[in-house]
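2024-03-11 09:14:02 INFO queue: dequeued item 2-keto-4-pentenoate hydratase, len=262
2024-03-11 09:14:02 INFO validating residues
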Amino acid sequence: MTDRQQAAASRLLEAYASGRPCEPVRDLIDGVDSAYAVQHLLTERWLADGRRLTGRKIGLTSRAVQRQLGVDSPDFGVLLADMAVPDGEEIPAGAVLQPRAEAEVALVLERDLTHGRHTVADVIRATAFALPAIEVVGSRIRDWDITLADTVADNASAGMYVLGTRPVLLRDVDLRMAGMVIERRGEQVSTGVGAACLGHPLHAAVWLADTLARLGTPLRAGDTVLTGALGPVVPVKPGDVLEARIDGLGDVRTAFAHEEES
Ligand SMILES: C=C/C=C(\O)C(=O)O
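2024-03-11 09:14:37 INFO prediction written
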């Protein structure tokens, strides 16, 4: 671990602690591997604090999101148990810095994925069930001024996530053709389709399984995988109520709490 990577991790941890976004960290990072080393430092710190790993998120899988954020390759980050919000419950004000929401397919695994190279069949065999999910992404970096290095170091801009509660077997859903809509109090604010996620959400999962196995931290039975947004990310503000629906998977909802009066 280099001093510069430590400095990047400290800058991001300070943003989490203070609730104030920081300057980008790319000036301290030499390439994507170095950015993942910073992410690893953050993860080790969180696990040492007693937080529990529940899986991974994949980011930047759809062209719409890549265009919105100006970053053009997929990445991943960790999911922790305290990032999960029950379906329909409120996300406390300030819990996620600069929040935005997106809808995606979650896979819950019942087998490890430890091969050097995985196939879609491996991922299907390893998946217990799929769920609809809202991911509330956030950025510890001021004004979302990110490059790939910034977002990777910042845990792939992960925030919180909300899973639907009706498990669906992969044999019962066509994830490629599954349409997605997010509504804010009944108004459509994002639409998309499974095919927008690297061609198919299972392709994104194969990419993640291969990448993590190569890094020596493979996906394990019990992990939840958020496979990536199916359509544009939506800025959110206190008081917003969002519902996401994905064909064949059903719906999931969350709300954003108002700031506390001081
Ligand atoms: C910045 C985060 C992007 C994602 O999470 C995504 O594209 O799914």
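2024-03-11 09:14:37 INFO annotate: Residues 52-256 form a domain with the Fumarylacetoacetate hydrolase; domain 2 fold (CATH 3.90.850.10).
2024-03-11 09:14:38 INFO item closed
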